[in-house]
Amino acid sequence: IANLALIPQNGAMGAVYASVLSELIVALVQLFMVRKELPIRQIFQIFCRYFGYSLLMLFVGLLLLHTLGEGVLPLLITVVGCIFVYILCLFTTHDPILSLIFSKEDSYVK
What we know:
The protein is mainly α.
């Protein structure tokens, strides 16, 4: 339905908007369905942390793209820079995901 409304007016970007809207609706419905089985408040706290990391990565990426200009090499440098910033955020905040990644045992598999 969103495609029918957004594509004629916005073309390819309308399809992007419709896809994002559809995914958001699906995520909200799934969240509603599991609200009693999962600790929603804790999930949102974790989400906010990673969202902050992502915003910082976005800012650095846009700054690099604006500074370096267009082309394949500037794009590759930007991607590597963004990955570096995200990993740096994980390490500087001692994120728990790192203990899962670098753990020698498979404690998360039961």
